[in-house]
Structures are given as structure tokens and as C-alpha cells.
User: Fold Sec-independent protein translocase protein TatC from Campylobacter canadensis.
Amino acid sequence: MFEDLKPHLIELRKRLFISILAIIVCFFVCFSFWKIILEFICIPLNNVLPQGSKIIFTKIQEPFFTAMKVALFAGFLLALPIVFWQFWRFVEPGLYENEKKLVIPFVLSATCMFLLGAAFCYYFVTPIAFGFLVNFSEGAFEALPSIAEYVSFFTKLVLAFGVGYELPVVIFFLAKLGLVDDKMLMNNLRVAILIIFIFAAIMTPPDVFSQFLMAIPLIGLYLASILIAKKVNPAAKDEEDSESDDDE
Assistant:
């Protein structure tokens, strides 16, 4: 069994190496501009901080490691097309010839959907979420947020939205491979909604509005994925064709 898996493990190691190498290269590029990137990341928080409050650091090593984390986060986003391309190259041997031609649509759609989710989080969710968290005490405490904790929270939130917005892309290719169909997705709609709300509750701030800002678009994407699966699932098409032949 190990001998059968060995070529796949070698191929996986190769694709992971290229992906990590791409992220490292992009990391060094972004590290040269970490201050500009950090200023952009801090805009949602600075916009809701009370007058006189500011972002601080409490440990001597905090600015350096924050700069590295910011550069790594930006480098990952910059390397996304290469990461998705390597993922496709890993699964490509198991695809049909007509499916192998979908590499460019896959890389473009996966990258765009991830960035769309990240942008939605940055421009719509973070202002509301951070406004709620900062003003929750109603002036009982002075706001002096730590830059390391803020960057960790921000990146976690943005990555969660990016991953969540990959749902239609994942469903499209699973349906294309015949692993899921629209009936299966529709039958599991309630379970999917429950999982989406649990995911949103874990990944977003504790206010209900932020959770809904994540859950509602994901539910909409799941419903759109049902339509996508209905259009592209080969098994469903074959079943429809067989039914039409029987009627004739």
C-alpha cells in the first residue's frame, strides 16, 4: 500500500515545496513594504478608536514579529494564484482531458473568490465588528489595543471570509467530478446552514450582527452552489438523458 501511495506523496511534497517557496518569496517582497501594509490593515480600527486612543505594543519583540506576520499574510495573498495552481497540478493526474483544461478558470475563480471574501470582510465587516468591540465598554475603559493581538484577530477574520467564499468554486469542481449533485446539496441544506452559522460564530466577533454578515452571504453562496451543481454535474445530466430515452 505504501508503494502505491509513494508517487502521490512525492508529488504532494513537490507541490507543497513550490507553494511554500512562492509564499516565502512573496513574504520577502512584502516585508519591504510592511509599514504601508500595516497602515492599511489598521485603518478599520483607527476609524473607530476614541479620540486620544492609539494602538500600542507591550512587548519589546512585538513590533518585529508583527511586521513578519503582516508580511507573511500579505505574501500569502500575493502567492494565492501559485498556491491554487499547484493544488490543481496535484489533482490533475486524476482528471479527464477535458477537465484538465479548466486550470486557468479554476486558478482565476479561486483567487478572485478568496479576494472577494477578504475585501467584503475588510470594507463591510471589520468596521462594524471593531466598532462594536471598541465601544462596548461605553467609556468605562481606555482603548489601547495591542498591535500584535489586533493583527492576529484581523488576519484570522479575513482568512475566514476568504476560505468561506471558496464554497462555489469547491462545489463546482466536486460536481464536475460527479462527487456531489444538486439533490444532495438541497437535502443537506439545513445541516449546511447550521454548519455555516457555527463557523460564523467561531470566526467572527461575539456580536450577532457580525455573525450574520458572514453567515448570510455564505448561505447565499451555498444556494448558488446548488444551481452550479445542477448545471455541471455529469451524473445528473446522464440521469436526465436516460430518463428522456426511457420516455421515448
Remarks:
- The radius of gyration is 22 Å.
